[in-house]
Amino acid sequence: MKAKPLVRVVIPAFNEENGVGEVIKEIPMDEVEEVIVVNNASTDATAKVARAAGATVLKESEKGYGRACLKGIEYVKQKNDTDILVFIDADHSDYPEELKMLIEPIIEGNADLVIGSRALGSKEKGSMTPQQVFGNWLATRLLKLFYGVRFTDLGPFRAIKFQKLLELQMEDKTYGWTVEMQLKAAKKKIKCVEVPVNYRRRIGFSKISGTVKGTIMAGYKIIWTIFKYL
User: Fold this and answer.
1) Residue 7's beta-bridge partner residues?
2) CATH number of the domain that 76 lies in?
3) What is the pLDDT of residue 206?
4) Close Cβ partners of 36 (under 8 Å, ≥ 6 residues apart)
5) The dihedral sign for the CA sequence 199, 203, 207, 213
6) Do 10 and 86 meet the contact criterion of CB atoms below 8 Å apart?
7) Model pLDDT for residues 116-166, shown as the tens digit of each residue
8) Smaller CB count within 10 Å for the chain: N or C?
9) Rounded to an integer, what is the distance from CA 134 to the centroid of its chain?
10) Which burial class, exposed, middle or buried, applies to 26 when counting CB atoms under 10 A from its CB (0-12, 13-18, 19+)?
11) Is 156 a member of any domain?
């Protein structure tokens, strides 16, 4: 890898007009070439706010977290120059300035995939629901049991060597995206590490953990994905 790797950031965003601008502003741009917001079927001003904050905005008309991430990957592939791709949510629950901690193990040659672990960091009270905490605990235990890999979180804030990401041939279009990446990395013996990240209450309302239906659907898809690739 080059001494100064080229880093891009992908932010999937569905109705996050209140948070996405703050996330973009707090990304350390001395480390990042481009911030890409994938406007995922938003009905609010997400795209307008993201552009005003300096991001490249892509449109994905069909809802789906993984679908938005895949749209971002296709855009980055066309650039043909990206060393590291970082994913972060648009709700301002993560601390974008911690991006430097995520890319450092990759730059130093100690990892190909870095997961920002909320379980290892400091969480603001109320930032994660009990069902989120339990879901992460269960999913990571299943990953260890079936794939022999030790994680503490399926945190959305993550960095990966772009070429390694392409090798994973990501497919999931909805809630199974994060766990698919981690289990495929385990199967392919890609070097994975976790770094502690801090976590706070999100701006706005969660479309997943904020509803019973969203929580059930996400939990089901994560477990289904773990068994799908056995």
Assistant:
1) 84
2) 3.90.550.10
3) 64
4) 8, 9, 10, 11, 55, 56, 57, 58, 72, 75, 76
5) positive
6) yes
7) 999 999 999 999 988 889 999 999 999 999 999 999 999 999 999 999 999
8) C
9) 19
10) middle
11) yes
